[in-house]
Amino acid sequence: MAATPNRQFKNICVLSGFNYGKHKEFVEVAVDLGQSIAERKLHLVYGGGNQGLSKLVLEAAFVRGSQVLGIIPRVLKPLGSLSDSPTGEELVVSCMQERITEMFNHADAFIFLPGDLATLEALITLASWAHLHIHQKPIGLLNVNNFYDGFIAFLNHAIKNYFIPSNAKKLFICAHTANELLDLLQAYRPSQTPGPLCWSIQIMMVTVAAVVVVENPVDLANHGHALREKPQLRVAVSGYFPVAAKIRGCSLKKGIDHLLLESSDDDDRGRQR
Predict the structure, then answer these.
(1) Are the beta carbons of 157 and 54 closer than 8 angstroms?
(2) Does domain 5-187 have CATH number 3.40.50.450?
(3) Domain boundaries, the chain
(4) Which pTM does this prediction carry?
(5) Are strands 43-46 and 68-73 parallel, antiparallel or unpaired?
(6) What is the DSSP string of the chain?
(7) CB 120 within 8 A of CB 101
(8) Coiled-coil annotation: which residues (predicted)?
(9) What's the pLDDT at 216?
């Protein structure tokens, strides 16, 4: 399940914790959200596991025909493993940051239910990426029982004290019901104005005076095999972005091979001198 090109809305990532919360409204809105996702023929990406509000969204969407992908760090599997009954696919990753990156790669939009610190980590990470113009995917807050009022108050406080620009509030689409929030997310249209920042990863060889720029790179771990095969490379990364990796129009592995060939030629010429 990959993110849909051309801004077509198909895959939605829902994030929450492994708990059900204090109030019945949290449970009710999670079930409503799963049902609404399936009714709109959307597919679900979520944080993996089979507990808490995530479980309710997962089951409500899956039994009504949505494709489901759970993304969970290996160390958390014992805490939230999927049940014996089939409830979609599961992708096991190495760490929390990789989980956020894979969620980003597979989703067209995000909904945050009431959740825990890991939920807030993903919220802040994705909002930061949007603020820095790394992506333009919509971020929704399902503000049931005014759960996210405190977060919005913090944003206002940071804006008032000139630590966050006032337009940062536009990064978040907020609603109190599942259907209202899905309507707003599906109506969202990203800005056509290009961002002021141009992101890239630089792969730098320590042993030679050469730099290769990887334009619009993804999660470098996806291409780690190309680096592991070249032990003479030492890699320094300035940036980390979940988009397609290219080096001057060719694959990362070919780019590294080309760089090593140039380096080898330089070494040979140095020895001949």
Answers:
(1) no
(2) yes
(3) 5-187, 200-272
(4) 0.69
(5) parallel
(6) --PPGGG---EEEEE--SS--SSHHHHHHHHHHHHHHHHTT-EEEE--SSSHHHHHHHHHHHTTT--EEEEEEGGGHHHHPPPSS--SEEEEESSHHHHHHHHHHH-SEEEE-S--HHHHHHHHHHHHHHHTTS----EEEE-GGGTTHHHHHHHHHHHHTTSS-GGGGGGEEEESSHHHHHHHHHH----SSPPS---EEEEEETTTTEEEEEES---GGGGHHHHHT-TT-----S----S--BBTTB-HHHHHHHHHHHHHHHHHHHHH-
(7) no
(8) none
(9) 43
Q: How far apart are CA 73 and CA 94, in angstroms?
A: 5
What is the mean pLDDT, run by run of 10 residues, along the chain of 273 residues? 60 88 88 93 87 87 88 78 62 88 91 92 92 90 93 94 90 94 90 61 38 44 47 40 39 46 49 53
Give the pairing type, strands 200-205 and 210-215.
antiparallel
**Which residue type is seen at 7?**
R
Q: Please tell me the distance from the alpha carbon of residue 51 to that of residue 17, in angstroms, as a whole number.
A: 8
Q: Could you tell me the two tokens for 261?
A: 């060939």
Cα–Cα distance for residue pair 23/27, rounded to 1 Å? 7
Nearest to 6 by CA among 109, 138, 102, 108: 108
Q: Write the single-letter amino acid at 226.
A: A
Residues found in the chain: 273
Angle 142-7-91 (CA atoms, 0-180°, nearest 5)? 65
